[in-house]
Design a protein that fits this description.
single chain, Spore Coat Polysaccharide Biosynthesis Protein SpsA, Chain A, seven-stranded mixed sheet, 26 strands
């Protein structure tokens, strides 16, 4: 199951008009990178929950066949929380299944994770990764065999009992649903949340710990970026451009410098140009930089170490340095 229903509030203003899974990394929606990863590792029967701009996701992915998937959808009229949407799709998911965020950038070896999951009798396997700053993540506390014995939510590094960040990638057995709260009893639900609301961190994982049910950490060293804010989105684009993460950029990769003689722009690689990009006379693009499909860089404009999202316009003479451009009239 791809989790694709969230609002992506930390990526505003971009996510005022698109769902977070459709935000572009190297000219592909981040959820497309996830879909391609699933197909490479043999996870082809997929369901995605939808809420925010659901038609945008449906129109891009369709039935999933273009990406090697058989894709179904589980719409949520009201958000059901991080695990409530999974419970809603339980009949589709069957006896053993994977849950992965549709808005994170990763090249995790899902085959290796599946092999570890099948090697133990626990009800769940959580992908974890060591991080330097635990204050930005929920961390899992484990014993010597990787069994999870507790969690801390965004602890100060001086107080952290673990540096294993929860990556939000889970392999689960259907018995997990026995430890969900009854509908209407979620500890994380607010007064306006629907009865089926449930949360992994507040409801399900504490339930496993209280019942002494074994579940395990699978530590990874793969690339993982949860694209939690605008700076992480920019970093993720540059990491994909420079192949720090094994994903497939879309467009023309410029790897040799162009000096801008005549009417052409000056380009200093690495630069990725999407389809239908127009760059005016006297403009310059200095990498790392990603220019989205159908974008226009005006005459004499300058782009330096920036991401220009699809359908954006930089006016003549405009300078965009070290940021993200999104919009048809100006950089911001």
């Amino acid at each position: 199951m791809i989790l694709a229903a969230g609002l992506g509030t930390r990526l505003r203003p971009i996510t005022y008009s698109v769902p977070k899974p459709m935000v572009s990394v190297c000219n592909r929606p981040v959820m497309e990178h996830i879909g391609r990863l699933l197909a490479r590792h043999g996870f082809t029967e997929v369901i995605a929950n939808l809420h925010w701009f659901p038609d945008t996701i449906r129109e891009h992915f369709g039935d999933g066949s273009a990406f090697g998937l058989q894709l179904s959808y589980s719409p949520e009229e009201a958000l059901l929380g991080t695990s409530g949407g999974v419970r809603k799709a339980a009949d589709f998911l069957g006896d053993s299944f994977l849950v992965i965020s549709g808005d994170a950038l990763t090249d995790i070896d899902l085959t290796a994770m599946r092999e570890f999951h099948e090697s133990h009798d626990g009800v769940a396997t959580l992908a974890t990764r060591r991080v330097a700053d635990t204050s930005q993540f929920g961390v899992a506390i484990t014993d010597g065999e990787g069994r999870i014995s507790g969690f801390q939510e965004k602890p100060d590094p001086a107080e952290a009992l673990s540096d294993l960040a929860n990556c939000g990638i889970y392999m689960l057995r259907s018995e997990i649903f026995e430890f969900f709260p009854p509908e209407g009893a979620s500890k994380a639900a607010g007064p306006d949340d629907p009865p089926g609301f449930a949360d992994w961190a507040m409801d399900v994982f504490p339930g496993l710990l209280e019942a002494d049910v074994p579940f395990y950490s699978h530590e990874i060293d793969a690339y993982w970026n949860d694209i939690g804010n605008l700076e992480e989105l920019r970093t993720g684009n540059f990491d994909a451009l420079t192949r720090a993460v094994a994903v497939e950029p879309a467009g023309e990769l410029i790897s040799e410098a162009r000096d801008g003689d005549g009417d052409g722009p000056a380009i200093v690689p690495p630069v990725l140009l999407g389809e239908g990009v127009e760059i005016g006379a006297g403009a310059s693009v200095t990498g790392p930089a990603v220019i989205g499909d159908r974008s226009r860089i005006g005459s004499g404009a300058m782009v330096k170490e920036a991401v220009v999202l699809s359908d954006s316009v930089l006016p003549d003479g405009f300078v965009a340095a070290g940021g993200i451009v999104a919009g048809r009239s100006s950089a911001r």
